[in-house]
Specification:
Shape: globular
Largest sheet: 6 strands, antiparallel
Strand content: 15-25%
CATH topology of the largest domain: Beta-Lactamase
Strand order of the largest sheet: 2-1-6-5-4-3
Number of strands: 19
Helix content: 40-55%
């Protein structure tokens, strides 16, 4: 495929006077300085033609180290002298800059920051290079690898212990099967269903429940149970000796033991409390629940019901830990840390899923594109803390939208997008107006003071009317948003090809 090169004009032309040239140059500088990436434009002879301020900040360079006339070799050699490393190395990079092709490289600064660069040739010779800080992304990937390694190591250890117990091959086989199912769970609810079915099958002579701490951490609630008529009432941590002692507790009537409060009324017809076991469920060092088993008749499927139940508790603990860890990592990778809304990455995935669903079902859906009006001015006048507070409150309004299945995302800065499944033009209009009015009526207080009124502008695109691809729908929604801005803000518009229909 032919590589398209970027065209960089060498001059402004004879018809452009000095004032116009200065204005164009200033505008170019403003645009470059507004970018998140660092950018350098290299001439054909390898000297710097232009760069933005972000480039200096990103690479921790003094202005004297990069300015018009600085050569590429000087920049690379200075980086190497201060301890930076390059992939590929400096010599190969110098060769690539003369190749006239698109290429990528990485530079690890002496401070530990990792920068990824993309170099693209320009039509009149030279290169434009964009630099991005990928340190956090790499650290996140390393954290995921470490977490997975720990989980894999824990699983291997459990399997090794089971295989060493030659005398309990049947138990090891059943435990391995349980472990396999639990590790395949996609949610905690699915895990609870598997626990119920498995325990009823392999320990038919027991009654039991699995308790999990509520969000308030003051009580434990029943999540599943087997061979019990009704779920047990919630219990408190002080009701169980296992939770008090921080380890499993076996009550045996023939030994010196004391009954837990939560089983004091679990008596047999003669009024005696039988043998039972309580196993704390621990996830990454934190107690998250309790497995309780009341032993009745013999369990021919296992040689030692207490030991087997104890090992089941270990596997359940491991599975819950993995599911919680996976959910946390998934949440971190798809949620915006400030607002709690889904982020741009999740938004693009959600758009692809919604497009596939709408295509299969031949249904429609709506994309809302919106942002806060004059938000930069608001930040400048009232500070970023106040701005963040406004974004949080605006996000809450998005969450409260009365549309079934709505997916609200923060794309970046004050920009948001909302997917409305199974919605048409009429429903989109109602939703957009309701949201616009809700935000306009919003009263924001920060640090004890009332902040100015906040308004939003919205653009609407509808599938398949305005496009059948994600990029087309996003573009049309953005165009409608721009039209709403141009119309005076605090309104919404529907994409209509070359024209826009306004509903204010």
């Amino acid at each position: 495929m032919r590589e398209e090169k970027i065209s960089v004009p060498q001059h402004l032309g004879p018809e452009v006077d000095g004032a116009e040239a200065g204005s164009a140059y200033a505008l170019t500088t403003q645009i470059l300085d507004a970018l998140e990436q660092g950018v350098i434009l290299w001439c054909t002879d390898g000297t710097c033609l232009k760069h933005n301020q972000r480039m200096l900040d990103l690479m921790a360079w003094h202005p004297s180290e990069l300015r018009s006339g600085t050569t590429l070799s000087q920049v690379l050699e200075r980086g190497a002298q201060r301890g930076d490393t390059f992939v590929p190395d400096v010599a190969e990079l110098l060769g690539l800059f003369g190749s006239g092709t698109v290429f990528h490289f990485e530079q690890t600064l002496s401070c530990g920051r990792i920068v990824s660069a993309s170099a693209r040739p320009v039509r009149n010779g030279g290169y434009v290079v964009a630099y991005s800080d990928v340190s956090e992304a790499r650290a996140s990937l390393q954290a995921i690898d470490v977490a997975r390694s720990k989980a894999d190591a824990a699983e291997r250890k459990a399997v090794e212990i089971l295989h060493n117990e030659r005398a309990r091959q049947r138990e090891a086989s059943r435990l391995a099967k349980l472990n396999g199912w639990l590790q395949s769970c996609k949610s905690l609810d699915e895990l609870y269903q598997i626990v119920t079915s498995f325990m009823k099958l392999v320990l038919p002579g027991t009654q039991g429940q699995l308790f999990i701490y509520s969000n308030s951490r003051d009580i434990l609630e029943t999540t599943c149970g087997w061979n019990t008529a009704d779920g047990q009432d919630p219990l408190t941590p002080d009701d169980c000796w296992a939770l008090r002692k921080g380890r499993q507790y076996l009550y045996d009537p023939g030994d010196l033991c004391f009954v837990c409060d939560h089983v004091a009324d679990a008596t047999n017809p003669e009024g005696e409390i039988g043998k039972y076991l309580c196993v704390p469920i621990v996830a990454h060092g934190d107690t998250v629940g309790l497995l309780h088993l009341q032993f009745g008749t013999d369990n021919p499927e296992v040689t030692d019901a207490v030991e087997f139940a104890s090992q089941c508790g270990e596997h359940i603990s491991m599975a819950i830990a993995n599911v919680k860890l996976r959910d946390e990592l998934q949440d971190q990778s798809t949620r915006d840390p400030l607002t709690g809304l889904y982020n741009r990455r999740y938004f693009l995935d959600a758009m692809r899923r919604e497009l596939a669903t709408a295509t299969t079902r031949q249904s429609t859906f709506v994309l809302l594109s919106l942002d806060a009006d004059r938000f930069k001015q608001f930040n400048d006048e009232h500070g970023h803390d106040a701005g963040d507070h406004v974004l949080e409150m605006l996000s809450q309004k998005l969450v409260e939208m009365d549309v079934s299945g709505a997916v609200a995302c923060r794309i970046g800065g004050e920009e948001f997008s909302v997917i409305l499944p199974n919605a048409d033009r009429t429903r989109a209009g109602f939703a957009a107006e309701e949201l616009r009015q809700s935000v306009a009526d919003m009263r924001v207080k920060h640090m004890g003071s009332d902040l100015p009124k906040v308004t939003i502008s919205l653009g609407i695109a509808i599938y398949p009317t305005h496009g059948t691809q994600a990029k087309d729908l996003i573009k049309q929604a953005d165009l409608a948003l721009y039209a709403a801005k141009k119309a005076g803000r605090n309104c919404w518009k529907v994409a209509e090809g070359d024209g826009m229909i306004s509903f204010e």
